[in-house]
Amino acid sequence: MATVKLILEVLFIIVCIALTVIILMQEGKSAGLGAIAGAADTYWGKNKGRSMEGMLVKLTRVLVVLFIVISAVLNIGSFN
Asked: What are residue 38's phi and psi, to 5 degrees?
């Protein structure tokens, strides 16, 4: 059982570091003055899900779910 806990702890640390890096790599959500002129409706604005930014958002969601699940499992396992 100690081996499983150690593996989960190492995985948790890796997920935490990856989550921090990916969040810092993302662009800000404020549109600035470009939104006033309608610049948000460009090709990259409409196809954001297929761009690098869209991939980072999806990866962030996956890592957040992993973070919550692993932290819950480690917390439940600490009562033994």
From this structure: 85, 20
The CA-based angle 61-30-52, given to 5 degrees, is 45
CA–CA distance from 27 to each of 11, 32, 48, 53, 57 (Å)?
26, 12, 12, 7, 10
Structure tokens that stand for 21 in this block: 């890096």
pLDDT tens-digit series, residues 30-77: 655 555 655 555 555 556 667 888 899 999 999 999 999 999 999 998
Q: How many CB atoms lie within 10 A of CB 63?
A: 19
